[in-house]
Amino acid sequence: MTPEKHLILIVDDDATTANWLRNLLGRKGYEVMAASTGQEAIHLARSYSPDIIFLDLVLPDIDGLDVCTTLRNDPRTATSAIIMFTVRDRPEEISAGLQAGADDYVIKRPEAVGEILERLPSWLTESRATQFMGRGRMISFFSAKGGIGTSVLCINIAYALSKLVEPKSVAVADMVLPLGSIASMVNADVSTTVVRLTLEDRRPTRPMVGKYFVPLDLWNFRVLVGSKDPMEAQTMQVERVPAVFESLRASFDYLCVDFGKGLSKITLPLLQTSEAIVFVISPDLSTVKLSKTVLNFLHGIGITDAQLFPVLNRAVGREGLTKGQIENELGISIQGAIPYAHNNFTLSINQSRPYALQFPNDTPSMMLESMAEQLKSHVDKMIPR
Question: How far apart are CA 353 and CA 156, in angstroms?
């Protein structure tokens, strides 16, 4: 398909930027039109159904996010590729743009010329309608302190969930950076990683995502690790993470993500957009105190109690505070509790087997299944099908 057959709409109230981009694309043979306001952009887009829309977030009349949502929900522009092109570069702003329906996000900077010219062919040839079909549910696993079994709970609840929702798809992503432990727990290959997905020259499509995730027949889900080693983790393109995770969500019915105890500019936007956050708590006093501090922080950034799914995991012993004492201290209700079974959990992980397969009649197996059922019910209400 030749460039002159493609129509591109530039939406930017900065004349210098609009003219620069118009000239750049015009020299490549594309037909280009421009709008300086949100209303004008909506009118032109509905009238001409452009192949690509470059959309600034800052417009004089309508917020760029609202323009994006309007165009994405209009049948006349539903399959146009919407590319956010803006100076706003915070991860939460990138995430908001992709949540509003943008296909990709390019930050205004000197390197933008190369990014735009490199990604143009994929924006033009890959129809949004065939790339993504809906949006899966994301269940995040997080704790205020390391070493209390968050990763172990993540993979075992994901296993229980996968058996519960068959034939729907379940995937696990390990976002404990710079190096997580899930790959060794489930005996998975680490040749493909989230880091490498962020280095792709275009937004990942469903076929691409499928090649990155490793299928695990024994565990009944697919897995993708964050990075293979600390060195690779340093090369992650942080600004691309929200786009990658929107693609992951669109590729699976349920996406379980292990964040460990990480609170960073990478993880926070993802936690904020999760349908459920399994907040793992240990009964020792120091963990409870840390959990209270973290809970106050999470509430402060807009995470609601409706998203939180607190779980008490007695991973290190039977001693410590009671469930009731922890609930009183934190001001939340514990949704599930895993009794102490350290030796059995260690044995199942050493053999890279789900706990419920290794010890099907143990109380923890029944509790894991119950929590999977509760989580499914919870997230299904938040994204009805």
Answer: 9
Residues 6+ apart with CB under 8 A from 93: 57, 86
Tell me the C-alpha distance between 311 and 384, whole Å.
24
pLDDT at 131 (0 to 100): 47
For the chain, which residues score pLDDT lower than 70? 1-5, 75, 125-135, 201-203, 316-317, 383-385
Cα diameter, the chain: 71
| Nearest to 257, CA basis, from 162, 135, 140 | 140
Tokens for 249, please give them.
Answer: 């969500």
Residue 336 CB coordination number (10 Å): 19
Q: How far apart are CA 99 and CA 116, in angstroms?
A: 21
CA–CA distance, 320 with 336 (Å, rounded to integer): 17
Question: What is the distance, to the nearest Å, from the Cα of residue 340 to the centroid of all Cα atoms in its chain?
Answer: 31
The string over 279-300, giving b where at least 16 C-beta atoms fall within 10 Å of a residue's C-beta and e elsewhere, is bbbbbbeebbebbbebbeebee
pLDDT of residue 5: 61
Domain count, the chain: 2
CATH number at residue 89: 3.40.50.2300
CATH number at residue 301: 3.40.50.300
User: Looking at this protein, which amino acid is placed at residue 56?
Assistant: D
pTM for the whole structure: 0.71
- Render pLDDT for 38-50 as a digit per residue (tens, 0 to 9): 999 999 998 888 8
Cis amide bond preceding 178, omega within 30: yes
278 and 153 Cβ atoms separated by less than 8 Å: yes
Q: Cβ(267)–Cβ(95) under 8 Å?
A: no
Domain extent at residue 308: 137-382
